[in-house]
Structures are given as structure tokens and as C-alpha cells.
Structure prediction request, 190 residues.
Amino acid sequence: MMEYSNRVKRLGLTLFELFSEALELKPSHLKDIDCAEEIFLLAHYFPSCPQPELTLRSSGHWDTSFLTVLLQDQVGGLQVFHENQWLDITPVPGALIINVGDMMQLITNDDKFVSSRHRVLPPKIGPRVLIACFFRQDHPPGTFKVYVPIKELLREENSPIYKDITVNDLITYQGSIGLNGVKALEHFKL
Ligand SMILES: O=C(O)CCC(=O)C(=O)O
Ligand SMILES: [Fe+2]
Prediction:
């Protein structure tokens, strides 16, 4: 697990460089504001479900991270909401899935990167195993960094859309409303 998370952290450095360049910022910009600094790792185990139609699907949600790196096995079940429909993210051996999270949307001020809504269907044939690495701070309370839209991305017609918040503000609010199809980031709109 340590080896894997170290490799994901290394991958994160490259991803945040590419995202910085896509935003026409200097390559180290997102790293310099500590987006790549920490990961929170979750290992999911979904037991097989003989009658998935009788269960609740894991609700659609948006990750609170800057970016999330997912490693899924061959069982599948992940779906992303795109153009008003749920699309299967079919497993590809050896491939990772990168999700844009709410903190990335916040710092880019809705300009280029919007967090992806996704959900997971229960596996008919399982179990399903998935490792999720969230690039976000995971600190003791009170030590979270406040994030603001990146000023280089703000133009006259593009003033800040969100309040200045920490990822903990998002996580706490999301925890209070649950995964009920409401995007936590919306709550922090100015
Ligand atoms: O199980 C999956 O494929 C996705 C898990 C997920 O979305 C999450 O942990 O936030
Ligand atoms: Fe997620």
C-alpha cells in the first residue's frame, strides 16, 4: 500500500503539472499551492450482490478532492454522469481513472475543470475491489489551508464564484447533507 501511494503521489506531480499547463499557468503552479501535497487513500470492497435490482445504488456524488486517482479491478460498476445520462466506465486492464474533484473546480473558478459526478452499481458477480486516492489535505482540524480561485485565472468578466474555503469545509458540509444528489460545492457559491 505504501509503495502504491508513493507511486500515485509521483503520478500526481505529473498530473498537476499537466493541469497547470492546461490552465496556462507555470507548470509548478498547482504543486506550489500544495494540491499535490497529500493523498487520502480509501480501499473499497463491494461484496457480490445476487439481486442488484433490489438494492440502492451508491448515490451519485462529486469528490471533494482536487483530483482522484482510481484503480478498479475488472468487475466494473463505475458510472459517470455525462450529457444527462449515466455512462459505464468500462475497466481497462492497467488503466487508472482520474476524476476532477470540487476543490479543482473551486480554484479554477468553474473556468476549465468541473468536478465529475459519478456513482457505483453493485456488482452482480463480485467481490469488487477499488483503491481511491484523493489528492486533498487530511489534517487535524484547524490546520486546513484556505483555497481561493487562482488570481491569474480571474479576468474582468470572471469574478470569483465561490467563497474562500478549506477542503474540510466541503467535507463537513457534504457529511451533513449526505450523498443525496446535491453538489456540496454549490453551497459555497457567493
Ligand atoms: O468505486 C468506485 O469506482 C468509485 C468510488 C468513489 O467514487 C469514491 O470513493 O469516491
Ligand atoms: Fe467518488
